[in-house]
Structure formats: structure tokens, C-alpha cells
Specification:
- By secondary structure, the protein is of the alpha/beta class.
- It has a 7-stranded mixed β-sheet, sandwiched between helices. It has a 4-stranded mixed β-sheet with strand order 1-2-3-13.
- It is globular and about 60 Å long.
- It binds pyridoxal-5'-phosphate.
């Protein structure tokens, strides 16, 4: 019998020639443990998933409770299922009135696919505008709007009618016209290396979309659920999108995504054609139960405010290191940009050797990411920063 590591490399589809290849036995809070009993600190949260920490007891309890009732029953949208209704009700309670209707899906990419289809259906237009250096997922529609050519070229032809404009360029907003169905934007660009909107860019984008009756889609798949110091990233900027895409941290560690809009918009997927989006497992009852529990934990444990406080502390403790050029931050997500170009990969490997899990950004090779679970304590932040400063 081959070892698990051999099977991983041989019988599981790989994404890169050099996966991290750490064999994890269990995880709890901000810690991961490998099969040799080594303890790692998770400073990535499974890429912005484990906002409430690994295996939060309330999430585990909700999952177990749901398992006593049912798992999958029927394709999405037919039966009334309590975990879905309670989660949708809670979301609509927390979101502005124009985001009162949730379509549950399986992943971030599927949320983007659903949002693009909804925008085409609502506006009866097909042109889509997205941003350079944006990441929206790996399916063909999401890939089409991704703002980096090197990840797309091997898979063409992709969707036609897509333009990419520059994030934070007011000038480029004139590309949005009354032919544009939608503009898809991460309100804070994640994989570009934490690029924050400047000079009321999102407000001006909202205005331009209103002038041209274009739908504004916010991809908060990576930034939602407390990561930015607010429950949703758009709350930082006073701009409400027409469609909000969520996933990742939504399920507290279980797979789930959603695109959310008004009831009026969403009804467009029910006729001409009926079944405008079909998903079998979308809004899986166990994932919804976990998602509601996770959302309650974020609120009850005040994780949004904690994210901001501990994010600030990370910044304060790291920013003066002479090897660091700049820190870009939102809440508890930091891009640490190194002075020496092309150095980030080496630093990431060294930190992982010291059992601090950090990772690179897709589109920024001079920075690395720090985005631990929002449950991290101040004492843990101080100890981690000590270790990082020593290693740098
Ligand atoms: N959008 C953003 C901003 C993301 O970061 C990701 C995943 O990293 C996605 C969309 C795609 O989500 P998923 O991997 O769940 O399909």
C-alpha cells in the first residue's frame, strides 16, 4: 500500500508541480497538526475560509444537529428546508433591503456564474466589465472576467464581450455605457495583493452604473464575513451593490456560496427560461446549518471588531522591519510587501519551515499574505510577529 503522500501525488489531480505536501491530521482554532505531531499556525485560514477558526464547537454542533434530520433531499429550490430558510432570513436581516433574496450555490465560482447570468437576464445586455488583476474563480465565466492574461490564454475561446478596466481609475469608468450589463468588482482586490479602493472610487463606480442602468456586482467571496472589520466589505465604503457574491468563510468550513440581489431581480431566473440557474447541491442543508452557526459566532464573538484590532496590531508590530517596504491592510488581511523584489517566495518557504503558514498572492510576487482566523488572540499575534520579525 502506498503512503498517503504518494497517493496524494499520484492519484489526486494536482494544481502545481510543488504543492505544500503537509499531511494534516487535525485542526483546531488557529492551529493545524501534521501526522508527526508538529503544530502549525494557520495564517491563511484556508484562503479566507476559517474565519471562526477550525472546528468551532458551535459550527460542529450545528452540523451534528442537522445530521439528525436530513442531508440532501432534492435539487435546489423545490422543498422548504429549515437550514436554508433560516440562513436566508438572517442574511436579509443583516443586509440592505435591495439585497433581500439569496440564491444558494456551492462555491465562489458558481456564485459568480449565477450573478453574471442574472445580470444578463435583468438588463437584457451581454457586455461585461471587470478589472485588471481581479480574481473571480476557475469556471469558464469566472475565468473570462479574471484580470490576468497568463491564467486564461490556454483556455480560449472564453466569453466574448468582456472589457477589463483599471481598478481605481476614474477615467476608465467611461467605458461603462448603456450596453454594459454589469460591472464585476472585488471592492478590495485580494489576489492583486490587497489593493484598497481610493478617492471614493466605489462611489463613483456606483454613480456611473446608475447613470447607465448597469448592474453593480460585488465579489466579496474572499472579503466577506468579517475579514475587513465589517461583516461585509461594502459597509466600509457606503456603497451597496445590486448583486453580492459570497462563499469561502460563509460556511464556517463547509462548502457553500451565494449570490444575493432583490426579490424582483432574482425572479428573472424563474421564467423565460424557467430554471435560469440549476444546481443540485446549492444550499446543502448541512452547509446552511454550519453557515448560520458560523454567522452567529461572528456576531456573538464580535469578530469584526476583533479583526480590525488584531489587524492593526499585526501592522504595528511588523511595519518597522527594515526588510518590509509596505504593508497594505484591510481588517485582518495583510499584504506584506518586501523591499527586495522577488523575495516573497523565499520568505514564505522559510516561514512555513518555521511552521507559520503564509502564502503568496496570485498577482503580486513581492508580497505575502497574512489572514489568520478572526478568533486569534492578541497574545498569539504578538508571539507570531516576534517570530516573523526574527525570521525576516
Ligand atoms: N472570487 C474571489 C475574490 C476569490 O478569492 C475566489 C477564490 O479564491 C473566488 C471568487 C472563487 O471561489 P471558489 O474557489 O470557491 O470557486
Amino acid at each position: 500500500m502506498p503512503t498517503n503522500r504518494e497517493i496524494f501525488l499520484q492519484n489526486i489531480g494536482q494544481t502545481t508541480p510543488n504543492p505544500l505536501n503537509i499531511e494534516i491530521e487535525r485542526a483546531k482554532g488557529i492551529y493545524l497538526y501534521d501526522t508527526d505531531g508538529n503544530e502549525y499556525i494557520d495564517l491563511v485560514s484556508g484562503v479566507s475560509v476559517s474565519n471562526v477558526g477550525h472546528l468551532h464547537p458551535k459550527v460542529v454542533e450545528a452540523i451534528k444537529k442537522q445530521l439528525d434530520h436530513y442531508m440532501h433531499l432534492m435539487v435546489y429550490g423545490e422543498y422548504v428546508q429549515t437550514p436554508q430558510t433560516q440562513l436566508a432570513y438572517k442574511l436579509s436581516d443583516l443586509l440592505p433591503e435591495q439585497l433581500n433574496c439569496t440564491y444558494f450555490v456551492n462555491s465562489g465560482s458558481e456564485a459568480i456564474e449565477g450573478a453574471l447570468k442574472l445580470a444578463k437576464r435583468v438588463t437584457n445586455r451581454s457586455e461585461i466589465i471587470a478589472f485588471k488583476n481581479a480574481y473571480h474563480g476557475g469556471t469558464q465565466g469566472a475565468l473570462s472576467i479574471l484580470g490576468n492574461e497568463s491564467l486564461k490564454n490556454a483556455f480560449r475561446p472564453l466569453l466574448p464581450g468582456i472589457k477589463h478596466i483599471r481598478f481605481n481609475s476614474i477615467d476608465d469608468l467611461k467605458e461603462i455605457t448603456d450596453h454594459t450589463a454589469c460591472v464585476v468588482i472585488e471592492p478590495i482586490q485580494a489576489e492583486a495583493g490587497i489593493i484598497l479602493p481610493e478617492n471614493d472610487f466605489l462611489k463613483k463606480l456606483r454613480e456611473r452604473c446608475d447613470e447607465t442602468a448597469t448592474l453593480l456586482i460585488f465579489d466579496e467571496i474572499q472579503m466577506g464575513f468579517g475579514r475587513t472589520g465589517k461583516l461585509f466589505a461594502f459597509e466600509n465604503y457606503g456603497v451597496v451593490p445590486d448583486i453580492l457574491c459570497l462563499a469561502k468563510a460563509m460556511g464556517g468550513g463547509m462548502p457553500i456560496g451565494a449570490f444575493i440581489s432583490s426579490k424582483e431581480n432574482m425572479s428573472q431566473l424563474t421564467f423565460n427560461p424557467m430554471l435560469g440557474h440549476i444546481t443540485t447541491f446549492g444550499g446543502h442543508p448541512v452547509s446552511c446549518a454550519a453557515a448560520l452557526a458560523s454567522l452567529n459566532v461572528i456576531l456573538e464573538e464580535d469578530l469584526c471588531n476583533k479583526a480590525e484590532e488584531n489587524g492593526k496590531l499585526f501592522e504595528k508590530l511588523l511595519k518597522d522591519h527594515p526588510a518590509i517596504k509596505e504593508i497594505r491592510r484591510t481588517g485582518l488581511m495583510l499584504a506584506i510587501e518586501m523591499k527586495e523584489e522577488g523575495k516573497a517566495f523565499e520568505i514564505i518557504s522559510k516561514l512555513i519551515e518555521k511552521r507559520l503558514i503564509v502564502d503568496p498572492f496570485l498577482f503580486n510576487e513581492n508580497s505575502f499574505r497574512i489572514a489568520p482566523p478572526l478568533t486569534i488572540s492578541k497574545e498569539e499575534v504578538v508571539a507570531i510577529c516576534d517570530k516573523i520579525n526574527q525570521l525576516l
